[in-house]
Write a structure and sequence with these properties.
Blueprint: H1 4-26, E1 31-32, E2 39-43, E3 53-55, E4 62-64
Antiparallel strand pairs: 1-2, 2-3, 3-4
The structure holds zinc ion (ZN).
Zinc ion binds next to loops.
Length: 68
């Protein structure tokens, strides 16, 4: 059985974490991946139809950005 409340809490928390992370990246601050400890970079130079993303070199952190 899935605990929906718990699920929503986790989702909200990771969403806030992502927002905080992106804010730091946007300011030019270095953010380290919680998993591998390497610097996360912002990839905004994408082709049309692709989403900008933030990711670490190892790939354990990969966040797609919903910016129009
Ligand atoms: Zn990583």
């Amino acid at each position: 059985m899935i605990d929906i409340n718990q699920f929503n809490k986790l989702r909200a928390r990771s969403f806030n974490d992502q927002k905080a992370l992106l804010k730091k990246l946007a300011k030019g601050q270095t953010v380290l991946c919680k998993t591998c400890g390497k610097a996360i970079s912002l990839n905004v130079a994408v082709k049309e139809g692709e989403k900008a993303s933030a990711q670490c070199p190892t790939g354990c952190t990969h966040i797609e950005l919903d910016v129009a």
